[in-house]
Amino acid sequence: MSGQKFDNKIVQWVDERLPIFSVLKESAVDYPTPKNLNYWWNFGSLAGFMLVVMILTGIFLAMNYAANTAIAFGVVEHIMRDVNYGWLLRYLHMNGASFFFICVYIHIFRGLYYGSYKAPRELLWALGLLIYLVMMGTAFMGYVLPWGQMSFWGATVITNLFSAIPVVGDYIVTLLWGGFSVDNPTLNRFYALHYLLPFVIFALVFLHLVALHTTKSNNPLGIDVTGPQDTIPFHPYYTVKDLVGIGVLLLIYLAVVFFAPNFFGEPDNYVPANPLVTPPHIVPEWYFLPFYAILRAIPDKLGGVLAMFGAIVILFFLPWIDSSKVRSAKFRPIFKQIFWIFLAVCLVLGYCGSQPPEGQIVVVGRIATAAYFLFFPLLWVLGKIEKPKPLPQSISAPVLKGASAGHAAQKMEKA
């Protein structure tokens, strides 16, 4: 029997037999949320919104796509020109991937800044990184489907990286290709996986939310909730805040879709795939560029592959690498500076990945790669030597203090 009571008799009847409405009410309406969450906490829900957009547009695009190397490029053009609103679906899907990654990257860096990976949220952090990894695989396979020049050569270069793995590397590449070169079996496999993996992401997001509701939300102060005075119900306070965020996101997202739909794309991908003509500069999508720069920074092929994958794997160990007991960077002055340097390093890596590997770019890429990996041992040392600022006694304390100061200022004005 459900513990919740609903005014609607039909809802109550269903809930007594299948308590879906009770679960929704507990997790999305009455869920106690820290009262001091700022707009940086919007990006988790915005990423979820973009996931739904990607799945829906992907399903409709799949109804008109054919995974055959002889016609794939032409089919995409058919979708753009002949299918009703096909151009809109494709531009929403194509640019949606970029906005999905933007939301996820901001969400990750917010978690890093406010220490959301620390105990007891280690598993929550790990599930978030798993979502990110599956997203990367899904995006890479989706990039191959238009079967343009960059699709073909990007698939060739990236899948060839696995051949650097000793003993089993060549077998992995052959398995991915479905033969001995990137061809029709490769396109078929990537299409099937690209359709499947978003539903895997959806399942991981569900587990991520379960873990979040078990360990409860972090907050900008990085301290635990001390009682009911520190929380407010999720609805209506944060649902309204999320709707504002979705409105702003849609303004920017749709502006790109309608006015600059190819802003994030590569011109070479509007040329049909040709195995006999190599593009002068092969680059992946922008959201892979930092890792591509790390790959190229190591002269050895196997070393580059290990560094590239290691740059992601090391993030899983962040809860144990960071030895500080204080979560939020608001109370860690040295860590705050190191964080912004680390963010700048990631942006530099992204720029280096977008440029041809020659001249000073190679040197800058190697320095940035070294700085990226140096961040993690430095984080451990910093936790031992840094003296953090004193933490407030509760989440409510700074809020009430600010309110008291405001009332005092108003009294002085009146006087």
Description:
With 415 residues, the chain is mainly α. The protein has 2 domains: 32-282, Cytochrome Bc1 Complex, Chain C, CATH 1.20.810.10; 285-387, Helix Hairpins (Orthogonal Bundle), CATH 1.10.287.980. The protein has helices at 9-17, 20-28, 43-62, 72-81, 86-113, 122-144, 149-160, 169-177, 184-215, 234-259, 289-297, 301-316, 318-321, 333-354, 360-385, 396-414, and strands at residues 32-34, 231-233. A two-stranded antiparallel sheet has the order 1-2. α3 packs across α10 (234-259) and α11 packs across α12. The termini are far apart.
**Strand line-up in the sheet with most strands:** 1-2
What percent strand? under 5%
The count of DSSP E runs of length 2 or more, i.e. the number of strands, is 2
Largest sheet: 2 strands, antiparallel
Query: How many helices?
Result: 16
Q: Which CATH class of the largest domain applies here?
A: Mainly Alpha
Helix proportion range: 55-70%
